[in-house]
Design goal:
The chain is an alpha/beta fold. It has nine helices and 13 strands. Helix content is 34%, strand content 26%. The strands form two sheets. A nine-stranded mixed sheet has the order 5-4-1-8-9-10-11-12-13, sandwiched between helices. A four-stranded mixed sheet has the order 3-2-6-7. A hairpin with a 5-residue loop joins strand 11 and strand 12. The protein is globular and about 50 Å long.
């Protein structure tokens, strides 16, 4: 059996509100509301499995209906679950407000923050480790850092998702780079890349970040994406979409890049697959792959 890509991070229940206009603070604003399985790590693991790459999700959930529903969906998508149950904290929940191509997320981490190094599998048996940056901003930081250290010691390739510009700004770029360390592929969107690099241009940001981590993929929405190793820069155009739903697109793009790379693809081919899966996620109501027949 092929060794899995181990994905460490968050499982969430997403409560998604699709606004027809800007949020009206202090007033009512009727909008369609949907409940979906979410979490950056869970999304990436699902898209990896959909791409034919065995994936194992390391996470922590509550002992509740939300967890049972979320895990059943992931299991049906083919994700191996290395998930512990917390009997004190609820499964994480995230209020997602979508307006056009912008999305604002208000998370309550719940049991995700209680993941510990004791919950980790043997990383030496992994094909690759992907860490959701959200785990670095919560009580799960010790588990994330232990996983990165174990993978590095076993010469297992590592990638990290930058997660979100707000927590990155609060924590600070230097603290983030120190935690992640060298020899890592970092995924970031334009806002996250600008915060980490101090550069507004995504191409420059990709080079600067890669100079610190080893490699970087910076997605710039409909304007494409860049890969860099600090010296070489590769650009790929994105897929045009009329009505994109941005929720989960970055998680899918990371899975697409990793799937193509693990199949031997060069950065240009990996970026193309990242765009393909990201575009597919944009057309899904929950940002997840369709369930298998």
């Amino acid at each position: 059996m092929t060794a899995p890509v181990v994905v460490l991070g968050d499982v969430m229940l997403d409560v998604l509100a699709e606004l027809s206009g800007p949020l009206q603070l202090g007033s009512d604003m009727p909008a369609p509301i949907h409940f979906h399985g979410g979490g950056s790590a869970a999304n990436t693991a699902a898209w990896l499995a959909q791409s034919g790459i065995p994936s194992a999700l390391v996470a922590r959930v509550g002992d509740d209906v939300a967890a049972r529903s979320a895990l059943a969906g992931l299991r049906e998508l083919g994700v191996e679950l290395v998930v512990s149950t917390d009997h004190e904290r609820p499964t994480g929940t995230c209020l997602v407000i979508v307006h056009g191509t912008e999305r604002t997320m208000i998370p309550s981490t719940g049991a995700n923050a209680a993941l510990t190094p004791d919950d980790l599998p043997d990383l030496a048996a992994a094909r690759h480790l992907h860490v959701s940056g959200y785990s670095l901003f919560t009580g799960a930081r010790s588990a994330a850092l232990a996983a990165i250290a174990a993978a590095r010691a076993a010469a297992v390739p590592i990638s990290v998702g930058a997660a979100s510009a707000g927590p990155l700004q609060e924590w600070g770029a230097e603290a983030f780079f120190d935690a992640v360390g060298p020899g890592v592929l970092l995924f970031a969107n334009g806002h996250e890349a600008a915060m980490l690099s101090g550069r507004k241009d995504p191409a420059e940001a990709a080079r600067v970040i890669a100079g610190r981590t080893g490699e970087a993929v910076v997605t710039d929405g409909s304007d494409g994406a860049y890969w860099s190793d600090g010296t070489t820069l590769v650009f790929a155009e994105t897929f045009p979409l009329d009505t994109p739903n941005p929720v989960g697109a970055g998680d899918a793009a990371a899975a697409g890049f990793l799937a193509a790379r693990l199949a031997g693809g060069r950065p240009s081919a990996s970026l193309a697959e990242a765009h393909r899966l990201g575009a597919e996620a944009c057309l899904r109501p929950d940002g997840r792959p369709p369930y298998r027949a």
